[in-house]
Automatic annotation (TrEMBL):
Residues 111-318 form the O-methyltransferase C-terminal domain. The keyword Cell cycle does not apply. One of its GO terms (biological process) is methylation. GO terms for molecular function: methyltransferase activity. This is Methyltransferase. The keyword Methyltransferase applies.
C-alpha cells in the first residue's frame, strides 16, 4: 500500500500569504472600499475612480471577491461586504484602515528583512533608515498617518475597555503614550463622570486636542506633555499602558509599571493592554508575530504573556491582578493598588 503524503495546501497558503495581504493593503491605500460605500460599481467605473489600470482591474477586484472583502452581482457590479463597509470606509467613525496604511507604508518592507534580524538580533528599521518613533515627528504627513494608525489599531480595544472595566468606581484616568487619545476619548464618551488625561510627548498635543474636539469631549479629556522616561506620570485613579510595554526591554517595562504604581491613588488600578502571547507559547499567532514585529522595529522591545505581566505588576506592588479578553485580538491585564 502506498503511503499517502501530507497535504501541501496549508504550506502554500502560509508561504504565499503576503500576496493576499498586499491585495488588501493596496485596496485600502487606493480607497476602493470608500468608493464602493456610496454605490456599487462595475469594473470599469471602479478602476477609473481609484486609478487602477485596465489590465489589472478584473483580477484585482475579483481577488477581493475571492477573499471575501467584496461581492459581485450578476450584472458585474462590485459591492463591499458588511465587514469591509463597516471597517474600511474612510468616512465612517469605525474606520480601521489607518492601521493597514501603517502596515503598507512602514512595515511591509521591513518584514522582507526578517531573516537578517533573526540572525543579528538588530532591528531592520536601522538598515531601512527608519526609527519607530523619532523620525516621524519631523515629517508632518508621516506623523499624521502614524497617529491615526495608532487610533485605528487601538479603537476596538479602547471600546472594549470603556465598556468592560468598572469605571463607575473611578473618577480619573491617565492614558500613558496616548498618541491621538483614542482610549481617553472612548472612556469619556461612554462615562461622562470620568475626567481623562492623555500623557505623551508634547508634540502630540495638537493631535490629541483636535481629536477630543472632534469627538465632543474636550471638556473632559485633556493633554499633559512629558517623557515617561524622565518625568513622573500624572496622578489618577486609573493609569493605562496600552500597546506601550511591548516597545521596550524588560528594564523599561518594569520601570513603567513602578511609575504607574507611584502615580495611582490608593484603591486605584493599572490597565495594561496588548496582543499577548499565550502562556504555553503554542497558539497565539498574533501575539508572537507582534513580538517579531518589535524585533524589526526596536532595539529591545518584545511581546509577553499574561503571566509575565502579572509577575511584573506584583513586583511593582499591585496586590491583585486579573486578565480579560478584548476585541481585536487584544487582552487587558488589570492590577489593583
Amino acid at each position: 500500500m502506498t503511503r499517502e503524503h501530507p497535504r501541501t495546501d496549508r504550506l502554500f497558503e502560509i508561504g504565499s500569504a503576503y500576496r493576499q495581504a498586499k491585495v488588501l493593503l493596496s485596496a485600502v491605500e487606493l480607497g476602493g472600499f470608500s468608493e464602493l460605500a456610496t454605490s456599487p460599481l462595475d469594473a470599469g467605473d471602479l478602476a477609473s475612480r481609484i486609478q487602477v489600470h485596465g489590465r489589472a482591474a478584473r483580477d484585482f477586484f475579483d481577488a477581493l471577491v475571492a477573499t471575501g472583502l467584496l461581492t459581485r452581482d450578476d450584472k458585474g457590479r462590485y459591492r463591499n461586504t458588511e465587514e469591509s463597509d463597516f471597517y474600511l470606509d474612510r468616512a465612517k467613525p469605525t474606520y480601521l484602515g489607518a492601521s493597514f496604511d501603517q502596515y503598507n507604508r512602514r512595515e511591509y518592507a521591513l518584514w522582507g528583512s526578517l531573516t537578517q534580524s533573526l540572525q543579528t538580533g538588530n532591528p531592520a528599521a536601522e538598515t531601512h533608515g527608519q526609527d519607530h518613533f523619532g523620525s516621524l515627528y519631523n515629517d508632518a504627513a508621516r506623523f499624521r498617518t502614524f497617529v491615526t494608525a495608532m487610533t485605528s489599531g487601538s479603537l476596538l480595544a479602547a471600546q472594549g475597555i470603556a465598556h468592560q472595566f468598572p469605571w463607575e468606581n473611578y473618577q480619573t484616568l491617565c492614558d500613558v503614550g496616548t498618541a491621538q487619545g483614542c482610549l481617553p476619548v472612548q472612556v469619556a464618551v461612554a462615562h461622562p463622570h470620568v475626567r481623562a488625561i492623555g500623557f505623551d510627548l508634547p508634540i502630540l498635543r495638537s493631535a490629541f486636542e483636535e481629536y477630543a474636539v472632534e469627538r465632543n469631549v474636550a471638556d473632559r479629556a485633556s493633554f499633559v506633555g512629558g517623557d515617561f522616561f524622565k518625568d513622573p506620570l500624572p496622578q489618577a485613579d486609573v493609569i493605562v499602558l496600552g500597546r506601550v510595554l511591548h516597545n521596550w526591554d524588560l528594564e523599561a517595562k518594569k520601570m513603567l509599571l513602578d511609575k504607574a504604581y507611584q502615580a495611582i491613588r490608593k484603591g486605584g488600578a493599572v490597565i495594561v493592554y496588548d496582543m499577548l502571547i499565550d502562556d504555553d507559547r503554542r497558539t497565539s499567532t498574533t501575539g508572537l508575530l507582534s513580538s517579531l514585529n518589535m524585533l524589526l522595529w526596536t532595539a529591545g522591545g518584545f511581546g509577553y504573556t499574561a503571566t509575565d505581566c502579572t509577575g511584573w505588576m506584583r513586583s511593582a506592588g499591585f496586590a491583585k491582578t486579573m486578565v480579560r479578553d478584548l476585541p481585536g485580538g487584544n487582552s487587558m491585564i488589570i492590577g489593583e493598588k
